[in-house]
Amino acid sequence: MTSKRDLIIAIFLMIIFLITGIVCYASFTPPVPDNEPMRIMFQTKAGKVLFTHSAHSFDYTSDCLDCHHLTSFPPDFDCSGCHFKEGDALMLSREDAFHDQCIGCHDDMGAGPVECNECHSL
Ligand code: HEC
Ligand code: HEC
Ligand code: HEC
Ligand code: HEC
Questions:
Q1: Which residues line ligand 2 (CB under 6 A)?
Q2: CB atoms within 10 A of CB 103
Q3: Among 5, 16, 34, 102, which has the minimal tally of Cβ within 10 Å of its Cβ?
Q4: pLDDT tens digit string along 76-115?
Q5: Cβ neighbours of residue 25 closer than 8 Å, sequence gap 6 or more
Q6: Are 49 and 117 in contact (CB under 8 A)?
Q7: Residue 112 region by backbone torsions, left for phi larger than 0, else alpha for psi between -120 and 50, else beta
């Protein structure tokens, strides 16, 4: 037999857990910047590359700075701001920066395309 008092305590606890859950969810879900692209289609002379930006930034890693490294404030999301078309001894070209970062991570994680035509497929 559950007494009325036990029932009240149970309901009280349930409400506390619910509120804790909502507060935790609200405080730990990172804010989504509304300018973040869903996907980017890179036009290259080797064939187009489709990059699922949102999947990469939410499912494959959660840190923008993994890719947008050394960015300034306000953030500069364009790799070309530093990695110019022609590279030199100090700075990778845009093409090498992309290849090193994209293929490097796929290699490290053992997932994602590493062959030319798996990326340049369109
Ligand atoms: C993980 C995906 C990926 C793989 C694998 C890959 N690429 Fe790329 N490639 C890119 C991206 C992204 C760019 C940069 C596009 C840009 O600059 O906007 C690029 C740029 C290029 C460019 C420069 C084209 C231009 O218009 O300036 C060439 C050439 C190229 N890749 C050839 C290759 C070759 C050859 C291979 C295999 C040895 C290869 N890529 C493998 C994603 C990839
Ligand atoms: C897996 C790598 C990766 C991650 C993680 C990532 N990005 Fe990006 N993002 C890119 C690449 C590559 C580009 C294209 C840069 C270029 O064309 O020079 C880009 C472009 C952008 C752009 C510019 C789009 C445009 O059209 O100019 C914004 C804004 C951006 N990212 C925001 C973010 C934010 C915010 C996060 C974290 C929530 C994030 N990115 C995480 C790789 C990444
Ligand atoms: C604010 C300038 C700046 C921007 C923007 C920038 N980089 Fe870099 N990047 C550098 C400098 C400086 C180096 C060389 C020093 C170093 O390795 O940290 C570098 C080195 C790299 C390297 C060599 C390995 C490493 O991590 O050190 C890769 C790969 C790379 N960048 C990819 C990218 C990609 C892809 C983007 C765009 C998503 C990008 N970078 C945006 C300045 C920048
Ligand atoms: C931080 C690590 C990381 C970086 C950097 C990264 N990737 Fe990926 N990528 C992954 C992982 C992990 C997968 C595999 C996901 C799966 O198979 O579930 C993947 C899958 C992919 C796929 C196939 C599935 C899909 O979502 O489209 C493509 C295409 C791709 N990556 C392109 C790129 C390009 C182009 C770049 C550079 C601009 C890049 N990736 C940079 C981790 C990364």
A1: 33, 35-37, 40, 53, 56-57, 61, 64, 66-68, 77-80
A2: 16
A3: 34
A4: 899 999 999 999 999 999 999 999 999 999 999 999 999 9
A5: none
A6: no
A7: left
